[in-house]
């Protein structure tokens, strides 16, 4: 343990929890100074803060009761500094149409229901939405660590809730999407256009395959865009990765879009980032508030996990369950990428406003980039 890391031991007797815990935990948290938040910031090698925590978890890094996770990187000064990204006043919508992809790519998820309700003198409408079918912001109740997908092994961010809390009659508001709706999410976004880089090399790729993107490729994409991935990112940034998903999906004939959800399990693959310690290290050191992409999961699917530090882990597990870092998926990055290439500039101001649903799991992000 690095001498700069000041640890406060909060609780040791986890047996007092009236809930099943996969391992006895020793809850420790970082002491930090609100006006100097990175003063004793743990490096990737110093994660987790206690060996009883799951793989590279950032539990306790923002305090043992924290519910905001990586959104804590967004400070007032982060938003204020990002105003310099607005130079032309062009606002670009990053959301897909809420009904897209249609049909949903996961066949157990129902399509959007949109009903018009005519009344005397005015019209209402009603939407019924599975928040995982279109552009979406995964909240912290969505994805815990688990060792074999078994609910008894679930471990949510900061160990604040269990599966039973979520599905109990009373439910729980802890780690709900209202936190990410009420926080006020804005700041600086950075686009890495992996698909554009591949096209620049005349390299072909299939977004419906299990091809993975490595961190060294992300460095090469940054270099191709004229950026240094080590020094370009600033704390609080929102990294958006274009994999070419929207472009290839839109180019499919309707009958192929219709059949996509029905590929057999082993073939139900989607291109995305690799699940590896190298990728986690690459991201952790950038102090990002969020990651996002145009594909279904940021990481490649199926995300059954890869061995990271001895356990099978997906990026979803470590990002959401471990770092409290949400993932924004199915973004529409086509116009943003075109604009960035036109301007030769890959950072922008962004805002996200999630639905203020108390206890919710995910939300359409209503994401906007402004250059
Ligand atoms: C917090 O950090 C600020 C700025 O570095 C410093 O002036 C202040 O003394 C620190 N407070 C504590 C309690 O350490
Ligand atoms: C920072 O922003 C928050 C939320 O808008 C506000 O409550 C707080 O007073 C602000 N802090 C400063 C120093 O302006
Ligand atoms: C998953 O792991 C837990 C804890 O080791 C064990 O109790 C459970 O039986 C396992 N479930 C499956 C389906 O393998
Ligand atoms: C890619 O293909 C185009 C058209 O055939 C060609 O002009 C260009 O030189 C190729 N670029 C590379 C990097 O191979
Ligand atoms: C990708 O799919 C191929 C063919 O199904 C398989 O042989 C390979 O192991 C898979 N690779 C990964 C990284 O899952
Ligand atoms: C990128 O920036 C880092 C940190 O400033 C520096 O050490 C490195 O040499 C730079 N890389 C390139 C290719 O310029």
Tally of separate domains = 2
Unreliable stretches (pLDDT < 50, length at least 5) are: 1-20
Distance between the termini: 42 Å
Q: Total helix count?
A: 10
Strand content: 15-25%
Written as H for each helix and E for each strand, in order along the chain, the element string is EEHEEEEHHEHEHEHHEHEEEHEHEEE
Tell me how many strands there are: 17
Secondary structure class reads alpha/beta
Shape: globular
CATH architecture of the largest domain: 3-Layer(bba) Sandwich
For the record, the CATH class of the largest domain is Alpha Beta
Backbone CA Rg: 21 Å
Quaternary structure type:
single chain
Question: Any overview of this molecule?
Answer:
- This protein has 371 residues and is α/β, with parallel strands linked by helices.
- It has two domains: 3-60, no CATH class; 78-100 and 135-370, 3-Layer(bba) Sandwich (Glucose Oxidase, domain 1).
- 20% of the residues lie in helices and 19% in strands.
- It has ten helices and 17 strands.
- It has a nine-stranded mixed sheet, with helices on both faces. It has a two-stranded antiparallel sheet with strand order 1-2.
- The longest helix is centred in the middle third of the chain and has 10 residues, at 215-224.
- It is globular and about 55 Å long.
- The protein starts with 6 loop residues before the first strand and ends with a strand.
- Residues 1-20 have low confidence and may be disordered.
- The structure holds 2-acetamido-2-deoxy-beta-D-glucopyranose (NAG) (6 copies).
- The site of one 2-acetamido-2-deoxy-beta-D-glucopyranose has 5 residues, from loops.
């Amino acid at each position: 343990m690095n001498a700069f890391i000041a640890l406060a031991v909060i609780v040791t007797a986890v047996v007092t929890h009236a809930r099943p815990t996969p391992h006895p935990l020793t809850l420790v948290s970082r002491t930090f100074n609100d006006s100097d938040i990175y003063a004793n910031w743990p490096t990737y090698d110093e994660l987790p803060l206690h060996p009883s925590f799951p793989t590279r978890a950032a539990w306790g890094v923002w305090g043992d009761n924290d519910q905001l996770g990586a959104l804590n990187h967004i400070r007032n000064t982060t938003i204020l500094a990002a105003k310099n990204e607005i130079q032309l006043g062009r606002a670009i919508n990053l959301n897909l149409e809420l009904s897209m992809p249609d049909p949903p790519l996961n066949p157990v998820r129902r399509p959007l229901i949109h009903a018009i309700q005519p009344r005397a003198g005015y019209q209402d409408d009603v939407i019924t939405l599975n928040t995982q079918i279109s552009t979406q912001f995964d909240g912290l109740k969505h994805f815990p660590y688990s060792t074999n997908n078994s609910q008894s092994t679930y471990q949510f961010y900061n160990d604040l809730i269990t599966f039973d809390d979520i599905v109990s009659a009373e439910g729980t508001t802890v780690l709900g999407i209202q936190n990410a709706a009420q926080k006020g999410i804005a700041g600086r976004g950075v686009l890495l256009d992996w698909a554009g880089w591949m096209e620049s090399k005349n390299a072909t790729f299939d977004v419906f395959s299990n091809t993975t993107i490595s961190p060294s490729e992300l460095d090469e994409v940054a270099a191709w865009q004229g950026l240094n991935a080590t020094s370009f990112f600033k704390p609080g940034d929102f990294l958006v990765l274009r994999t070419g998903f929207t472009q290839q999906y839109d180019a499919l004939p309707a009958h192929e879009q219709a059949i996509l959800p029905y590929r057999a399990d082993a073939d139900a693959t989607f291109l995305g980032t690799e699940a590896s310690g190298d990728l986690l290290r690459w991201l952790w050191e950038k102090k990002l508030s969020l990651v996002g992409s145009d594909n279904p999961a940021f990481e490649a699917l199926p995300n059954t996990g890869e061995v990271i530090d001895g356990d099978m882990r997906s990026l979803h597990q470590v990002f959401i369950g471990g770092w409290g870092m949400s993932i924004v998926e199915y973004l529409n990055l086509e116009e943003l990428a075109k604009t960035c290439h036109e301007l030769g500039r890959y950072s922008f101001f962004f805002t996200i406003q999630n639905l203020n649903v108390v206890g919710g799991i995910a939300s359409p992000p209503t994401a906007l980039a402004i250059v």
